[in-house]
TrEMBL record:
Domain Peptidase M16 C-terminal: 244-429, 727-904
Molecular functions (GO terms): metal ion binding; metallopeptidase activity
Protein's name according to its UniProt entry: Peptidase M16
GO biological process: proteolysis
Signal sequence, start to end: 1-26
Keywords of this entry: Hydrolase, Metalloprotease, Protease, Signal, Zinc
Pfam family, one: Peptidase_M16
Amino acid sequence: MNVLIRASAALSIAVTTFAVCLPVHAQAQDLISPLGPVYDVPEPKAVQGEGETPWLYEDSNVPVDREWVFGEMDNGLRYAVRRNGVPPNQVSIRVRVDAGSLHETDDEQGYAHLLEHLLFRESKYLGKAEAIAAWQRLGATFGADANAETSPTHTAYKLDIPDIGPEKLTESFKLLSGMVREPVLSDENVAAELPIVLAEKRERGGAALRVSDLTRRTFFAGQRLSVRNPIGTDETLIAANGSKVRAFYDRWYRPEKTVIVVSGDADPMVLAGLVEQWFGDWDGTGEPGVDPDFGDPVAPEGAAKISGTDLPIGELGVAVEPDLPRNLTYAIMRPWRKVQDTIVYNEGLLLDALAQSIINRRLEARARGGGSYLYAQVSQDDVSRSTDATFVTFAPLSDDWEAALADVRGVIADAIATRPTQEEIDREAAEFEVAFVNSVEQESVQAGRNLADNIVNAVDIRETVASPQVVLDVFRGMEARRTPEEVHARTKALFEGDVVRSVYVTPSIGEADQAKLQLALASEVTVDATARLAAESISFDELPPIGKPGTIVEEGPLGLLEIQKVKFANGVNAILWANDAEPGRVTVKVRFGAGYRAFDADSAVYAALGQSALVGSGIGELGQNELDRIATGRKLGFDFGVDDAVFTFTAQTRSSDVEDQLYLFAAKLGMPRWDADPVIRAKAASELAYNTYSTGPGPVLNRDLEFLATGGDPRFATPTPAMLKTVTPEGFREVWEPLLSQGPIEVLVFGEFDQAAIVEKLRTTFGALPERAPISPEVAARVPSFADVDPAPMVLNHRGDADQGAAAIIWPSGAGMTRIRESRQLEILIQIFSNRLLESMRERVGASYAPQAFSDWPTEIDAGGKIVALAQLKPEFVPVFFAEAEKIASDLATTPPTLDEIARVTEPLSQRVRRASTGNQFWLYNLEGASNDPQRIELLRSLLVDYSQTTPDVMKFLADRYFARSNPLKLAVIPEGQELAEVPEGQSLPVAAAPAVRPVPAARPAPRPAVVPIQGR
């Protein structure tokens, strides 16, 4: 059941060409035909009836979620199926095999993940490298809808098939059964897939991988997990062949080790029948595997103890990584044991979560108040069925990490020594109540893919799932247990265990070693009660008015559906759509100001810091802590963003809280506060993070691509430490204060709300703001340009591994709403380009794991558009990438793509549009700016057609316009000390000679235990 609990603790309308979908609550079902009978599907025989205990709920008294239909077949395969219509006409299928990297022998390391790849390579019904195209033709987007993952404990195959019908659904089960039951595990296929896996491994390398490996070895010393990374080792992977991989497959890919989960818009009996039809006669081959012992955390003999406790200090690790910021994690380790997933057990988990929330709030308050660390967090986790551990993680602000450790331990020591107050418990409980009530409200719109994933995760941790109402009932039913005594007892238990282990990451040699780390952990700690927070609530009724309520000067239909537009005398526009598509949920977005246009070379450094510090600097009399308190028991948000031509406030809130949300947003514009601490903290975080961009080629591209593509526009530069030294809280206010009162305001409210009440609230909040200062012509004209292009690549350097490189090639494209239909057709072309790039650089030669291309077409401004193709690969393949990308571009400009190529792209694109259009986010996103730009409404009518219908000649025309008529900018990222290589001899790709190289202009500036699943193909 804790899958849900822990997760909570953090129409188509036929009007001519208007062919997008309305939310499900409207008339969507009128046009979405029901699945109907599926051909030749037998009646399921293995369904567990209501009188039986479903296999997932054995030894549990958690109420069964009867939306699920469970079955267990004679061959041992178990399944769970249910009807779900979110999004409409989609089915999500999950196949989980109970075998991951922990099930490999020493010489099989990486085989579970390699096997995951091979199932997509060739199987009974799919020829070599046909899987990607096959799933695309069924409407699935590769990577998003068709994927897999390998973790230490399982391998899971994930398919989301849109626009499902009898034939497509049957075909999906057929293809999937062939992949799982009869993959072609030949030497040839292993040899073809191995370079792709090695490329994936290479791209995950560098400093982060070294720290990950050290962390895993240290925290899980003596356990199987310490020497089992899902990606494997070079030695074991290179030694792989068909027979070796087949041996692993035969042991673990068996029906009794497999669970199939299906959630979708279909009769559950049909889904169960399909599972039994395609998997019911599956038998394993050879002897089944025997689950290995994962081991327990054990303290070394004679270990030193934590001062004042019986906790022995075990293995310690120190990593010196010059480009990583300081980070220290210590963990109290306990053995993992399968639990009886009962109501009482889950009540205990909730008490644990409350205890952690109280400590984390205190730690955050200490950091906000000028503490010695940037952030700190306590979290309990069951890791890979290997340990039940409490992790404490923090980032010291300086080289005095011992002081930061002492500060963090002091706050925790207080929580262990002294009971929390009832007010503290009630405050955190109010946050949980909001989350659980919100889940109940949203139950009818839970996405099928998420429901399927919940079952997979529950099977993995050997527990159950519960409906949102059950979770809420359990939480409310344990109110009598939410006492200081009970929470204190659970707090103390979180910091009891068998051994403490720790890893410290530092950029400086000699700053720490194992002896210093042990001494710091063993030192006595001073209890720090200063971080305990006052729990008195703040009422919105006590807050001052924004101003004199405004006057409505215009109100009526926007011109689309039932969406309304309201205009106030001060110039504020609002777009409102009250609907019940997502019960209880409301999205609020405020657009104002000039966005990146507002900044120049002198103020550019404050753009990035604004996204981190503007909200935290407060409103009126409320600082950051007070904003937290006023949000208690409410679902309020405050995301701030800087876009091309506008600033945005965004929040997901509830029907009952939307009025308060509007007040907060309006108050930030009408009565901003300018606390210094959030600015200082954001500055420190940026300084600490800057060097991490040098750790590999991918981060370098993230840091510099936008900056270099715009010809060195300082607004798009990642602030360097030298730039950050000029930042002050006073400077922050000087830049941002006028920007909050500049430019038009548009407020969008979409969701379930009382329209009359919201119009009135808008009148007293945004309508009460003073008139806005206009955006000057000078500011409005600050649009990005494209870089001056030299035929030779621009070379960037990273300080990561010597075998890591990256390349990006960038063409200028268009921008603005006037040509938005062209941008949608261009998206089809770029997806065709991306498929060809994937085929050549990945599938054909294994040079790169995930090459891709994308189109960036700004709609708020009339410049700055670009097409980007990029890949991570070995440095010697960088010139090959440039040549291949230019060859693909040239081919598309001279020879139209085939109809099949187009269909492989347009079908997934059209399905993405149809699925997205069932929610309010789709409509809000596409109607942003419509209050001042009515063409957005008209252009929305052709959206689905533009993404789903085109011709080869149109594709050729666009390729000629954007590829053949402009010179691209090339960025090469290679290790320091290396030079860009010539094209390797014997390269199988048809490539041109490597161009000359030019350097980047010198004047331009340039965690937790790692047991994260390897995300599939």
